[in-house]
Amino acid sequence: MTLRIQQAGVMASIQDWGRYAYQSQGFAPAGPMDEHAFLWANKLLENNYNAAQIEISMGMFTAEFTQATTVALCGANTNATLNGKQIGNWRSFSVEAGDVLRCQYAPQGVRAYLAVAGGFQVEAQLGSSACTPRQGIGGLNGSALSSGDEIHYQADKCRNVLVPDRFIPRYEKQLRIGYYPVYQHKSFSDEMREQLQRKLYQVTGDSDRMGIRLQGPIIQAPETLPLSEGIAFGSIQIPADGQPIILAKDRQCIGGYPKIACVNVLDMSVLAQAQPGTQIRFYQCDLYEQLVQLRKRNAFFNIN
Amino acid sequence: MRVEIINEQSLLLHLDKELDQHCPLQLAQLRGDLLTNFPEMIIDAVPAYTTILLYVKDIVSMEREISQFLNTYQLNNKKETSTEIITIPVYYGEEVALDADVLMKHCQLNFDECIQLHAQQVYDVYAVGFAPGFAYLGNIDEQLRIPRLSTPRKHVPAGSVAIAENQTAVYPQVSPGGWHIIGRTAMPLLQLDQDQKSIFSVGSKVQFEAIDKDTFLAQGGDLT
User: What ipTM was estimated for this complex?
Assistant: First the structure.
C-alpha cells in the first residue's frame, strides 16, 4: 500500500516531530516547520504526535492512493481536490484505492501537511524519518520527494472529523512576533535594539526550512563577532548585510553570526506560514506566559 | 560559569572565560558530567568553544538545577595526555589543493612548507556542526593564517581539507564553503551505522598525515 507521488511541487518532504539528539554531531533537528498544523493533522487521525507526514511547500502537489484509508490535510489552504472535487482543509477524510489528491498553489499560508492514519511508514535514520535534504538524511533516500516516489502506509479507517474553527489560524499579512532578548542582544546598540521593536520587516521569497529571511531597515551588528555557538530554534541572526534571518528546523547546529534575540516556539509556527511580503513587527514577550501556552499545547497533543 | 535561558527549550551554558587550549577538553568533560547527572532531562548538548547549548525538557527546573550544579563544579585544568589522536591521511596534490596558489602567495611560502606546517601539529576539536561531522580544528601555525574566501564556493568536494584564519577542517560531505582548500582525504568522517556518527567530537585530538597520490587512490580517493 503506497502513496504514489505524481508531482512533488516546489518542495515536499517527509517530516516527523524531528531528530533531537544529534545536533552535537552536526545534524539539523528537522521536523515540521508549522508544528500547529502538523499536530492537528495527526490528532484528527488519532495518530501519535510523532507520526510521519508529508510537508508540502507552496502546493502544486499531486499523489495517488493505492489503497483505501483515512487521511488529514491541515495548514496552508491549497484548494485541494480529491478526484477533481474540492475537499477542504483542516479535516480528515476517507480515500479509496485509485483516488488522486491534488494541492494547488496556496493562496494563504505556505506549508500544507498531509497525514495518513497510522502515519507514513518510513524507515527512521538516527531515530527519526524527518528529512533534511541539504544533509542527505531522513525521508526516502535523504532527499525531498520527487515524482515517482512511493511511500508506504497501513490501510486504516477512522472517523472523518474537523478542526474546530477557533483553532484554525487566519494567516494574516501583518504579524506580531514575540522574542526573548538573549544571546548577543546586549552587545547591539540601543538604537538597533529599539529598531528591532519599532520597524517593520518583510518576509522574503528566499526563506526556506533553514531560515525565514527578512528584509527591512539594516540592523548594524556589533563589531566583534561572537565565537561560534549552538543555535536554538528561532534565533534571530544578523549577518553582515544587516538583514535578519530567523533560524528554523533545518538550521545549522552552530554559527558565528551575532544573534540579537530568539523568537518564541509558538510564533515559529506562525512564521512558517508567512508568505513573501508578510509584514512582521517584533515585541518582547514573557517567557512564563509563553511556557503556560506551550505546556497547554503539549498536554493537549500528548507530547511527552 | 552561568546558564542563560534562550527560549522555552534551550539553555546556553557559558564558561565565562577566555578561549584557551584547555576549553575543548573542559567542555567535553562538563558535557559528559551534565548528561550523567541529568540523564532524562537533557535531550542534546551542543558544545562549541566556550559554550554548551542544552536542549532540555523543563526549562524552569533545569535552569535552577544546572545553576546549582555549576556552583560547586570545578573545571579540569590538567592536561589530558591519554587522549587518542585521530590521524587523517591527506593527499595534498595539485589536482585537489584547489587554493594552493592563493595560499602560497598570501603566506609567501612554497607549498611543501605549507604542507609541513599543516601536518606537523596536533589539533584540538573546538566545535562540531557547520554540517554533519564538520569539526573546527585549532590552532594552525601563525604562518598559514589566511582569511576566508571573499566568495564562498557553491560545491566543495567531499573530503576536502581546508583552512581559514586560525582553524582547519575537513568537509565530510559535498557542501558550500568559504575556506581555502589545500588537500583531500579518502577517510570517511561520518559512520551512520555507529552510535557515534561523527568521528570527531569536541575534545578529540587530530593530526594530518601527508600521503602520495597512489596511496590516496588505493584508499578510495577521488580526484574529480
Answer: 0.95
